[in-house]
């Protein structure tokens, strides 16, 4: 089947046109896969005690996980949908920087989280997508999020795709460390994701399915129970089969925008400047 949007992307320059490429990949070509990849990327950031302990200390994610999830997704969707130099993109970046600026987050932690936005979707699509990203598409992801990082005032962002990926792997190897806060935040996140799809009575059945999509070093750092091998094989096999079947479908003609989705946190809509947390929420 002809894939006109993929053909369009192939004609674009990965650096100069990275904003258009990311928009097309995220909302036309791989809307489900990229969203799932970024959801599971959250678990990787929670395996870093410096990150999970901050989330546990503030208490906001534990008390209102759905709102914090919606805040993050809406801010990032504004940037991806409108571009980082647009009015809405700049306002979203400003709101994100205001939130982060209140906390003692290290530059290396910022670098690592930024890297997950690049490499986790690439890895997910390698494993489960109807196709892998081309090299130019991978580079577009790198150039897009590198520009986002520069606008977040993150320092020492590698200028090379492979160099940044090596940083990502080294950082995980050195910083995936077991901590109580890792498990606390991971369990809250598992329950949040289960709430998207299942009634509470079925959560105990759904948890092992989520665990089966996580790799062993991550499971160990989060202190989560390893699922049986057959379940992991079933989950990964199902995801791979889904990818093959999606390959027979046409690409979306209309974008599946994240900002258009109805969210319980904002039933009446939202203003960018009101997203996220503020010092009045009880912590600084």
UniProtKB/TrEMBL annotation:
Cited Pfam families: MPAB_Lcp_cat (PF09995)
Signal peptide as annotated in the record: none
Superkingdom classification of source: Bacteria
Domain ER-bound oxygenase mpaB/mpaB'/Rubber oxygenase catalytic, residue spans: 56-229
Annotated PANTHER family: ER-BOUND OXYGENASE MPAB_MPAB'_RUBBER OXYGENASE CATALYTIC DOMAIN-CONTAINING PROTEIN (PTHR36124:SF1), PTHR36124
Protein's name according to its UniProt entry: DUF2236 domain-containing protein
